Amino acid sequence: MTLEKTPPASADPSSPSASSLAWARRRGSVARFWKEYRTHRAGLLGLAGLAFIALIALFAPLLVGGDVQSVTNAPGTALEKPSGEFPLGTDQFGRSLLGLLIWGARISLTVGLLAAALSVAIGTLVGVIAGHYGGWFATVVMRITDWFLVMPTLVLAIVLATVMSRSIWTVILAIGVTSWPTTARLVRAQTIAVESRPYIERARALGGGHGHIMTRHVLPNVMPLVLAQTTLGISSAILTEATLAFLGLGDPLIISWGGMLQDAREAGAVSSGHWWYLAPPGIAIAFVALAFTLCGRAIEAVLNPKLGVAR
Amino acid sequence: MVERVFPRTPRRPARQPARQRPRLRLLLASGAASAALVAGTVIPLNPLLPAPQQAQAADGKKVLTVAVSQSVDSLSPFLAQKLVSTSIHRLTYEYLTNYDPKDAHTVPGFATAWESSADKLTWTFTIRKDSKWSDGVQATAEDAAWTFNKMMTDENAATANGSFTSNFKKVTAPDPETLVVELNKPQATMTALDVPIVPKHIWEKVGDFSKFNNDKQFPIVGNGPFIITDFKVDQYIKLKPNKDFWRGAPKFDELVLKYYKDGDAAVAALQKGEVSFTSGLTPAQAAALKSADNIKVNDAPGRRFYALATNPGARSKDGKKFGNGHAALLDPAVRKALFQAVDRKTVIDKVFQGHAVEGKGYIPPRFSAYFWEPSADQTIAYDPAEAARTLDTAGYEKNAAGKRVGKDGKPLDFRILCHATDPNDKAIGKYLQEWWGQLGIGLKVDCLDNVSDPWLAGDYDLAFDGWSVNPDPDYVLSIHTCGALPATPKDSGATDNFICDKRYDDLYAQQSAEYDPAKRAELVKQMESRLYDTGYMNVMAYPNAVEAYRTDQIKSITTMPEAAGNLWGQDGYWSWWSAVPADDGGGSGSSSSTGVVIGIGAAVVVVAALGLFVAMRRRSTAEDRE
């Protein structure tokens, strides 16, 4: 937004070494990023929402205690209406739904973060390698990527979740290995763009090998893109996790939001009108997915000025 | 430092906000749209749409629609084993004998009379003269003789009901009204042969009985009260009444079994009047339907038992052991301790919410002649402290981490096979995990869509198990004999849980040769007692049959047993054969209150979103307007 030069880091009056300069530069770019990010109201809103959910998930053991999952010590009776004691009512075992909702945030967030990280890691690896080497190798790799891209993600994830044992790791893996192709394509494009810059040619002339170029020059330059992609990927990963759990493919003994929806369906909450069982987990899923999307969009807009102008 | 771009400055008039708002608006609009979509899909039949389909179709046909969820395994009576398929065969083929709806005593079916010779080895059935196949051919003893002979000579034809004919020596039909069965040794199930009799002139053309599923040519020729006219896998099965049925034609003009894979969808369809009957209700659904208009909830003692099966070490008849069942479960003390820690009362109260009876013996109390309960000193009562003592004395001490350690020094960790489609399995799995966790025993609940593969391979420690019991208990007793074990580890036998116990087998042989009902019942009870003591089959509950039907479509219907009985999955064709359509055949116009509430909810969401949308729009154009 502003055209002023980045102010030099203030904290080193003495002779600056190379690494302290680099750190100053990084601090500066983070500050610049934050300054830019702050201008996006929706992004801030999303960030606030995320911070809220993350705090709840982190402090769930203090807020509700691990005992909330226990069926044998359930305090209420089956499917109670919302009341003072149970603000969101109870499930079919008599457990407090508010407690389960808070506890479920942990699984939903964990799965969302890890699955998105896995997906982006695979995508980045494939994208950088394909973009760097090029030629027939890239063609083969990108055709494989295309094949994954046209494959319906959910169907593939369902197949994976069915053939493997039911645990959250299976779900993470199923989401991770099915949702990477978009990242791979984006990263490959960015890699090709970066590698056409003169300094890469210079590095090569100075004897930089494939590994050096990929890790020291290309990777740092695609990282912003990867960061934005991760943030956007988390929301779709959370949605996929909820879908898989709702379809009964998650670990039925672990409390997650999608699993709560599945439990509600199995208890017949829809046809018997127990809306308080269905609505909160659904709204929570929508809320977190929205928050991550808002953040992701804002990061994308900050890191990619072209995108902002185009819109 | 704080340079806000957001507030409008004269030089850059609100470009930034203008760029953001459409996105927010789009989000809101799509949110509203998806909310409406979700409401539409969750409530399978959108209550905002009018014109519910009724029992009375446009041409005045009275249709009885039954919601089902179980897939048909085969329409061939020689292969079908699932409840939905055998129920259809009850409706479409005659069996030699039938069970009375009042008390399940044997009544005439295809046979009008029967008697055994003095040596108990020859049975003579008199076949009725007034039964015709639906293609007009007379049904005779020859058809029955051909059906039994086929099962005796062709292994593939014996898949479903082979246990009835394995003891048959010779079956003949000296004349069209007489069927003679000669036995190798006495057989107590001769008046309870649950074998559908098929028309010889149709079935003798069939080549491979293991592949023929009887679902290509419609209508399917039969002589029961109904005739199958159409079948689409997992969509519907249509049946029309057999007008010439000797006991009298059914009253409805059509019987349709319609597939609803989702219980909530079936209940919604019932509330709308799209189906006349649905079964397998959850406690919440039953409670909600009880207060609904024109709907009767039938909560009847079931004919099923629901048990905890323990792998006794899978083996085949050739003596080979296979599978990977936990070695500690071979110790009776461990099995006993596990069941001592299962609070059956909580299972009934919390999981079934009262729609079940606490488990005792193997056969449900509904079959009072064979119902057995353990004596006071035999009973494995719920007592967690006693369970811990049992394990302590048997040498399974707790280690530093509080886990029980087996004889091999490893912590006791069991797996339990659970049906992913059965919510009760999952629910009880949660309880077991906590109960046994307190004992110091770990439990991994393996919920699978297809439990058959690990089950048949013996790759399980414990499993949730359940069978529907017939008025004659022979079959459910036979699945725990050594004779039911698979021939080799690669085969699949009729065995339920690989149990093979000498004393049990001796009693089984005795009861199957005992023609005196009282003496036979006594032997069956001894078998149940023996089974209870082995601890391989621990019955937790007898679940009720919780069903509901529309009283504005079905005026009356026979339950079995008549007092407090079930409708779906009867041991006869009584319910659907006897169902009388309501006079006006529907007129249920009003959709359910729940549907309306949710419909209104969805409408409110849409309206609110629209309001927001308009507001945002007005705001975004505010600067232009001013």
TrEMBL record, chain A:
Keywords: Membrane, Transmembrane, Transmembrane helix, Transport. The chain crosses the membrane at residues 42-64, 107-132, 144-162, 168-187, 232-255, 275-296. GO terms for cellular component: plasma membrane. It is found in: Cell membrane; Membrane. InterPro entries: MetI-like, MetI-like_sf, OppC_N. SUPFAM superfamilies: MetI-like. It is a multi-pass membrane protein. One of its GO terms (biological process) is transmembrane transport. Residues 105-296 form the ABC transmembrane type-1 domain. Pfam families: BPD_transp_1, OppC_N. The keyword Transport applies. The keyword Transmembrane helix applies. PANTHER family: OPPC IN A BINDING PROTEIN-DEPENDENT TRANSPORT SYSTEM. Belongs to the binding-protein-dependent transport system permease family. This is ABC transporter permease. It comes from Streptomyces scopuliridis RB72.
From TrEMBL, chain B:
The keyword ATP-binding does not apply. The keyword Membrane applies. This is ABC transporter substrate-binding protein. It is found in: Cell envelope. Its main location: other. One of its GO terms (cellular component) is cell envelope. Residues 9-21 have a biased composition (Basic residues). One of its GO terms (biological process) is peptide transport. Belongs to the bacterial solute-binding protein 5 family. Residues 107-478 form the Solute-binding protein family domain. Residues 1-21 are annotated as: Disordered. CDD domains: PBP2_NikA_DppA_OppA_like. GO terms for molecular function: peptide transmembrane transporter activity. Keywords: Membrane, Signal, Transmembrane, Transmembrane helix, Transport. InterPro entries: Peptide/Ni-bd, SBP_5, SBP_5_dom. Pfam families: SBP_bac_5. It comes from the Bacteria. The chain crosses the membrane at residues 596-616.
